[in-house]
Amino acid sequence: MQYAIGIDLGGTHIKTVAVTSSGEVLKKLSRDTKDNHGTISNTGTNEPVWANEVKELVDWLASEVQHEPAYIGLCAPGLAATDKRSISFMPGRMAGLEGFDWTDYLGHTKQVQVANDAHAALMGEVWQGAALGLKSVIMLTLGTGVGGAILHEGHLMKGQIGRAGSFGHICLNPDLPSDDTCMPGSLENSIGDRSVATRSKGKFKSTKDLVRAAVDGDDFAKSVWDRSVRELACGIASLVNVLDPQAVIIGGGISRAEEHLYEPLQKELARVEWRPNDWSVPVIPAALGEWSGAFGAAYYAITET
């Protein structure tokens, strides 16, 4: 039985899945990324800790399935290299990721197919999730940062250098500080997990803590969260005006806020979305949840190898 391993290397977690070409899940496992933990001291090398974590996960999956995978795909934040062996550009975090050759490192017999994480997440949803059967979709992945992807006429839009769908780096306010791509007042800075401390003036360190406090009646936390959701709604409505999709899919770890995200988001969209003849675009959660990227990486490996 042939199968693929899909790896979603995120800033916070690594998610891996072993899946057949028909979508049957054989095994899956997640663990912490351990970014910024220095080097792998027990190997005597200067590889990032998360590289060793990925290798251990791949080895574990192969041992559980009891034979080697036919395909391996990996997705991560940043722009994928044109040869699809590495991430070519990832500013500001995950030091060592740029140019890291996953085929060489994992020693797989076939090339490890590397993709942008949001692109992979959307393809996972096209294959097995909320975008199944749709031809025109946009997806936003709300996590440590904010990623995005576009399905147009049934095809993933990559652009000239793989930058298409970088929704986290659209400008919502030109008077605010810039993000890692030099974009001032970006959507990523409005809703991404890595900007929570800045948005909350140091009071909260994660979206999870911020939302919990808001639900528990903390007025300051509620004001910060409400503004973040309002800016997200403005970003989504702007993208709808440009791309006119059949649906908008929301994925990533922040989507676990569930009704605390979707209920205020729908209210804000009702205020700002252009709805000719009462036509509104459905905004729906990723059916695969946080596993969209891992499934998409496996699918990418199967179809691109």
Secondary-structure map:
Layout: E1 4-9, E2 13-19, E3 25-32, H1 49-65, E4 71-76, E5 79-80, E6 87-89, H2 102-106, E7 113-116, H3 117-128, E8 137-142, E9 146-152, E10 155-156, H4 187-191, H5 196-199, H6 207-215, H7 219-243, E11 247-251, H8 259-272, E12 283-285, H9 292-304
Parallel strand pairs: 1-4, 4-7, 8-11, 11-12
Antiparallel strand pairs: 1-2, 2-3, 5-6, 8-9, 9-10
Summary keywords:
5-stranded mixed sheet, 12 strands, globular, 2 domains, single chain, Nucleotidyltransferase, domain 5, alpha/beta
Description:
The protein is an alpha/beta fold and 305 residues long. The protein folds into two domains: 4-120 and 291-304, Nucleotidyltransferase, domain 5, CATH 3.30.420; 134-286, Nucleotidyltransferase, domain 5. 34% of the residues lie in helices and 19% in strands. Strands 3-2-1-4-7 form a five-stranded mixed beta sheet, sandwiched between helices. The chain has a five-stranded mixed beta sheet with strand order 10-9-8-11-12, with helices on both faces. A two-stranded antiparallel sheet has the order 5-6. Strand 1 (4-9) and strand 2 form a beta hairpin. Residues 37-42 have low confidence and may be disordered.
